[in-house]
Amino acid sequence: EEFLELLELLVSCARTYVSSLAAMEEFHLSLSQCVVLRYHWIDPFVRSLKERLAAFHRFFCVADQVKVYTNQNKTRTFIGLEVSAGHFQLLELVSEVDRVLEEFDLPTFYKARRLPLTSLPDPSFHISLAWCVGDLSGRLEGQCLRELQDIVDRFEDSALLLRVQWEEIRCKSGNKYFSFPLR
């Protein structure tokens, strides 16, 4: 309930800069990009994920840094909360998910990350809060972003609200969800 109150404050503020902004209805943190699985790959893919993720323990992460994102082809802009703690554990999970994707010749989440001596930054793990059509990042960055971060920093109990315990990893394939509990 308190998280939805914080979300409403953030979206309301951001709409003064971009009126077409829509709040997300479901929240997640991605460990892979969307890929197309052939029907006969689903069961072996899920089995492989289950095996790779079985050794992982539960952990906490904190998503408290407001950031503006655009999708790869710049057709959507998002406001998200970037992870500021728990990044290492998420990188380890992505590494295992990437190995499963490679087994099926599917694109990995952040392929450039694996190149030796790469100067590219680590992925920005985040939870999307709101979105709009087009690349409107220029209108949301700067003053708007500072105002949004102030709302998060001043929100009562935000430190507790934005601390997320990872108890399971989920995989969605079509209309099916698969859950992999962490130890």
UniProtKB/TrEMBL annotation:
Which terms under GO biological process does the entry name? Answer: U6 snRNA 3'-end processing
Record's protein name: U6 snRNA phosphodiesterase 1
One GO molecular-function entry: lyase activity
GO CC terms in record: nucleus
Q: For this protein, what reaction is catalysed?
A: a 3'-end uridylyl-adenosine-RNA = a 3'-end 2',3'-cyclophospho-uridine-RNA + adenosine; a 3'-end uridylyl-uridine-RNA = a 3'-end 2',3'-cyclophospho-uridine-RNA + uridine
Q: Which gene encodes it?
A: Usb1
- Keyword Lipid metabolism among UniProt keywords: no
Q: Is Transmembrane helix one of the keywords?
A: no
- This protein's source sits in the domain of life called Eukaryota
Give the protein's biological function. 3'-5' RNA exonuclease that trims the 3' end of oligo(U) and oligo(A) tracts of the pre-U6 small nuclear RNA (snRNA) molecule, leading to the formation of a mature U6 snRNA 3' end-terminated with a 2',3'-cyclic phosphate. Participates in the U6 snRNA 3' end processing that prevents U6 snRNA degradation. In addition also removes uridines from the 3' end of U6atac snRNA and possibly the vault RNA VTRNA1-1.
Q: Which PANTHER family match?
A: U6 SNRNA PHOSPHODIESTERASE 1
- Give UniProt keywords alphabetically: Hydrolase, Lyase, Nuclease, Nucleus
